[in-house]
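Predict fold of Transcriptional regulator, TetR family; 204 aa.
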Amino acid sequence: MVAGMSSDADMATGNAVKEAAPARSPDLTPAAWLEAGQSLLRRGGLRALKLRPLAEELRVSTGSFYHHFRDFDDYQGKLAHYFAEDQVSDLIGALERATPDPIARIRLLGQTVRRRGSSRLAIAMRAWAESDPRARAAVERHDTLMLDFLSRCLTAAGFTRAEAEIRAYGLITLGLSKVHAPHLNIATLFDDLLDIMIARAPVP
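Predicted 3D structure, encoded as tokens:
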């Protein structure tokens, strides 16, 4: 589950956190280029991540890219860092501000992941990590932050740290699953599994 993700998340109320669409002008911010790169990764993986498609995604010339990045290698390094740091930190902060209820925070995370297509991005990042140490470090950092967030939520809900970490791992791997199960309701699967994970066994 991930991550990824523009830096804020629309919550269930629709107003708790807002996500702004990137501008379409030669004065684009670096973040707009990074968001566009993530969009390409979601749709086509690393093979789709090239300068011309990036510029076409933003409807600008390729020359404007160099206002923000030395070269494409520099861009890729910043894209990996964005996945692991700024975006995740902003997302976690938004979730924590949205509600004091730790389980509600996890549910909001699941909604955000589905809305953004974050699972596809996480899978693409993991494929990239096989060949680029920057992407590998980013994935490891991203997972560390998300595991910690989920574990803290579950601990606050009454689980031991060990119980919380196991459940957090399960929730993250759910977001990376490619299991073909058309008979299941994918829209509610995360919440259904969360309900199972937080249920306590009846006392004999």
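Residues 1-24 have pLDDT under 50 and may be disordered.
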